[in-house]
Amino acid sequence: MKKQDFSNIEKKIIQQQPVYKKAPREQFMFSAKNRLINKLILIEEKRGERSIWKFSSKFAAALLIYVVGIGLGVIIASERTIPGQLLYPVKRFNESLIVGTAIGPEQKALVKVEITKRRVDELVQLVDDQQYGEVKKATQELKKAAEETKNQIEKLPEDRKKQSKETAKKSFREGKAKLSKAAEKSDDLIRSEIEAAIKILDDEEENGDGEVKGKKKHDQSGAENKKGKDKDEDEQ
Amino acid sequence: MGARMPQMFEKGERKLIKSAKKGDKEAFGDLYEMHLKRIYRFLFFQLKDEQTAEDLTEETFIKAWDKISSFRIKRGGTFKAWVFKIAQNLALDYFRKKPTIPLSEIPEPKSYDNLEEKIDLDEKSEELIKAIDRLPTALKQAVILRYLEELPYVQVAKALGKRKSTVRVMVFRALKILRKELQE
Known about the structure:
heterodimer; A: 236 residues; mainly alpha; 9 helices; elongated; disordered C terminus; B: 184 residues; globular; disordered N terminus
């Protein structure tokens, strides 16, 4: 295919440069730079505060949504974590916030019951996932949570205590059932840890009633002893 | 063709661009003075009206100032191509908004009578200029930038927002049309 030669027409076009290179009018050229700068300043002044406000409010809104979104996302993601996972500390921190913001001792007691339930679920999950390294620590955390639940319930006035105790007992029973199932699947070493956890819940369940009973017994036996003593004194 | 900018000039422009990017209007004003004439004539050749060409020249640089923070300094005088691109877009917008004028009513470039240098516009030159003027806008702009502004293909491509190979094809087509028109 023959290469087309446009050199002639190219030359002719280039020859039009003097015609093409028409200068602007003198009045336009006069102070062109200053005129432009003044226009730029005027435009910026007009846009000025309004744009800063728009920018800052839009930016602030976007940043807030971003931070809240990230925060919520992290919180939501942390809810299902178990000991040893990256976001687990976030979950524990959230729990402390919830406890801190609970209104009144009764609500706090309910929150503590829920937290104990969570410790049980975490322990069960650790066993299911065979994360045996965390089981012992999780058992200790469960013990701590169960004790705190009991202590919180004890702070309640007598008329409110019963209801909370019932709730806690029910939760502990469910927890024990879950742990028992987990124990069936485990080897001896882990089973002993789970059984220790079940015992914790047992003790706390009993102590909830047992202390009262024990106190009564003690009071009763104390009263009986005193009677006996008095009788002995009388006989003497 | 495609004269290279003297190095000193290029360095001077770079410094001005850097200052302008930091908000120095004075520096930007100097850039305006450096490129004002070529943008004006590029627009005037297409618009055929001095006032409109002056207005759009100013508007080109107002837009350039707005976008200066996004301009990236590279070697090879691309600021010129970048500003041409803004001017080219403004010209296109102007033609889109303006109602179509029949060919017979396209005004003569009357300001050519006021040239400081007396240049005889012979018949053939007049014919060629009219032929360039009749080219489709994109081809016309390619011809102006390549032959009248003497930009290398790479800068023409940047100014038109096209690939270098596309610009070569555009120029080829334009030359073909012009040659045919002049032969006729």
